[in-house]
Design a protein that fits this description.
About 75% of the residues lie in helices and about 0% in strands. It is mainly α. It is elongated and about 60 Å long.
């Protein structure tokens, strides 16, 4: 692709994003996009048959870029030979998420528009699918390299690299917990759903306790641990 073609496509994409910031995609017409992009309809149709092809092309490009960034970040952790302690996690945080965060920052306007109420709800599901596949790959990596094939330690290793998911589990996000259980159960079908759910919640609780600064004195430690434990036990009833 030559520079002129690339610049034209960037203008068309920018035109689409400008339009999405003003009204829903379903209400857009092709002419809204090429007028906003400052090009003729002939040039627009030279690249895209309609607004739907443009949207699909943009979403595919973003998904591919996100997957590539996730792979680069995960590769930075492959050589890790031990369970990271809190100090290790702080050191690993930058390389473990750097490419993903840089990608999201670079295309934040496009991503924000697509996941907004004016964008495409299916795009959110596509991003979730990418995250799910990434977690599955992480679990599979630890399962195939583990000597014991113990689901608890495989899940522990995988979830230790997913602080966002840990936070959602700790906050009691049932949808996230159910999805994690569903994903993990495909890797460990010989274990009951209840056992996997218990593993996930216990693992997230332990990792959260290890990584928090709440426990600076004995009183706060006992209080915080008691609350977390009580919340965890309630989910088992």
């Amino acid at each position: 692709m030559d520079l002129r073609q690339h610049n034209t496509q960037e203008r068309i994409v920018a035109g689409l994003i400008d339009c999405l910031e003003a009204k829903p995609f379903r209400e857009l017409e092709n002419k809204d996009i090429y007028n906003k992009a400052g090009i003729t309809y002939r040039i627009f149709f030279r690249y895209y048959s309609d607004k739907n092809e443009l949207l699909n092309d943009l979403e595919k490009s973003l998904i591919n870029g996100l997957q590539s960034a996730l792979i680069k970040d995960r590769n930075s952790l492959i050589g890790l030979k031990h369970e990271p302690d809190p100090d290790d996690i702080l050191t690993l945080a930058d390389p473990a998420f750097r490419h993903t965060l840089l990608f999201c920052d670079k295309y934040k306007r496009n991503l924000r528009a697509l996941v907004s109420k004016n964008g495409d709800i299916l795009f959110v599901h596509k991003i979730q699918n990418v995250a799910e596949k990434d977690l599955l790959n992480e679990i599979e990596l630890h399962r195939t390299t583990s000597l014991t094939y113990d689901p608890y330690w495989c899940l522990h290793s995988a979830l230790s690299h997913q602080p966002g998911l840990i936070k959602e589990v700790i906050y009691g996000n049932i949808n996230i917990i159910d999805k994690l259980v569903q994903i993990a159960h495909t890797c460990f079908p010989n274990n009951s759903v209840f056992k996997i759910r218990t593993h996930i919640q216990l693992i997230c609780m332990i990792i959260n306790i290890k990584n928090t600064n709440k426990f600076s004195d004995s009183d706060s430690s006992i209080s915080a641990f008691s609350k977390v434990t009580q919340d965890f036990l309630k989910t088992l009833k």
